[in-house]
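Hi there, hope your week has been kind to you so far. For a while now I've been wondering how a particular protein folds. I'm sending you its amino acid sequence along with the C-alpha cells. Could you read through the record and tell me how the C-alpha cells relate to the sequence? Take your time with it, there's no hurry, and the full record follows here.
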Amino acid sequence: MEKSALQQARAAYQPKLPKALQGPVKVKEGAPTQSVDNQDEIKKLFPNTYGMPLIEFETSDVANSAKMNVGVILSGGQAPGGHNVITGLFDTIKKLNPENRLYGFILGPGGLVDHNYMEITKDFIDDYRNTGGFDMIGSGRTKLEKVDQFEKGLEIIRELDIKAIVIIGGDDSNTNACVLAEYYAAKQYGVQVIGCPKTIDGDLKNDQIETSFGFDTACKTYAELIGNIERDCNSARKYWHFIKVMGRSASHIALECALQCQPNICLISEEVEAKNMSLDDVVEYIANAVAVRAANGMPFGTVVIPEGLIEFIPAIKKLIAQLNDVLAMPEAKELSREDQIDFAKGHLTDENLAVFNSLPMNVARQLALDRDPHGNVQVSLIETEKLLSTMVAVKIEKWKKEGKFQGKFATQHHFFGYEGRCAAPSNFDADYCYALGTSAAQLIANGKTGYMAIVKNTTACSDEWKAGGVPITMMMNMERRNGEMKPVIRKALVELDGKPFKAFAASREKWAKETCYIYPGPIQYWGPSEVCDQPTKTLALEQM
C-alpha cells in the first residue's frame, strides 16, 4: 500500500520499553489478591483463577525459549495503539523462539468461534507498526459467554496448536476473557487467556492499571479539535459551541480535555449525580453562564459535555434501571418495538413514568429501545448537545421576556467520537501499547492465565516503567446487567476528591466568566521530550 511521509516516518519509530522488558525476564510474585467487592460470589464463580498474586517482571540472566503459538483478538471499539500491542506481542514471541507463530482472529471474538483467522507474519505486520485503527485484523463485539462458544473456539485452538489467547479490549471484553480463562482452567485444557486494557473512555483504571491505552491519543486529538473551535469561537464571537465528547460510563475524556483547553463550561457526569441535579438544574447552570458572559459583552462560549451525561442524572438513571429490568422480561422480548414502549410504560412506577413522559419523544424512545450487545443504552445516539442547547434557548427566551437577559444566543453543535478512535498513536500510546504486548507475551511464557497485562509508573521515563500482570478477578464485582446479577470489571469513575477534578474545579468559575482558552494544537511526535512525550494532565496530577 502507498504510504504518506508521516506513515513512513512513524513506521520507523522504535517504541521504548521498560528496562525489565528489554531482555530476559523473571517473575516476582506479590501477595494473594481478592476482588474489589462481592468476594464470596466472585470466588465461587472463578475458583480456578481467583486469589492469584500480582506479578512484576524483573531482569534475568536466563533466557526463556518457550515454544508457544498465540492467538490474538481485538474486541470492542477502536483505540489508538491496538496495533502496537500486537506488534509487541509478535516481536516478543519471535524473540523467545523464532518458530513461534501468532494468529489473528478476524473481526473480534466472533473470529475465534467461527474459525476465521490469519497468520500474522513479519512482512504483514511491518505495515501496521505505530499506526492507528484496528484494520490489521478488525474488531467485533461478540460476547464470549456460552459453553458452546468456548468449545467451538477450542477446536481451532487445538488445530493451530495455540497455547494462549490474548484478548485486547475494555472492561466488558476483559470480563469475557476472565470467564474464558476460568472455563479452560476448570476443564484443564491447558489454554491460557491474557487480557490487555483498552478503552479511550479511560474507565478501565484502578490501583494497578494507571491508564487504558488510547486515552492519551484520543484526548490529545479531541483537545486539538476543541482548541480549534475555541479559537474560532473567540474570533467570530457570536456562537456558543456545544461539544459532546466520548465517555459513556465516565467523564475522564471531558475532564482531561477541559484541563488541556479550559472551555467556559465542562460538565462532569459524576458530579451531576453526586449533587442530585435534575436536567433543569444542568440547563440552569449553563444558562446562567451564558447570561453572565452576554452581560459582559461576550455572547459566545464553549460547553464540553460527556456523552453519558444523561445516564448520570439521578431521575433518568432510575428510569433507565427500571427500563432495563422491564425490557429484559420474557414477554417484552416477544413484542414489536412500538409495543415494547407501551409495555414498558405500563410497568413503570408513577415517578419513572412522569420522567419518561417529560423527555422529548426521540430521547424517550432511545432510552427505551436502543441497546448495545451488553444491554447498555446507546447514549452516543442521543444528541445530548442539541437537547441541552435547545433547553437553554427556551430558558433564555423566558428570561428575555422577563427582562433578565439582553443579547443573542446562537449555537453550533459538535460530537467528537470517531475523530479520535483511530488516530495515529502518540509516542506515549505507541510505547505503552508495545510494552503491554510484550508483557502479555511474557505472562504466557511464564505459564499465567486469567491475568491482564499491566505497565505502571507511567509518568516516569519509559526506562523506569514497571511491567507485569494483575489477576482479572481482582478488578471484578457483581452488577445488574440485562435484569440479572453478573460478574463484571468495576468501571473507574471520575473521583470528585481526586487531584484532576480538584484542579479543574478550582479554575472553572474563572473560565466560565472570562475567556481563558488554551489551544493545544496537533499531537507532536518529534522535538523536545517535554513537548512530545508528555503524559495526560490527568496522569500527571494523579501521581504528583
Q: What stands out?
A: The chain has a mean pLDDT of 93. The two ends are 44 Å apart (CA to CA). Residues 215-236 form the longest helix (22 residues). The CA atoms of residues 199 and 406 lie 44 Å apart.
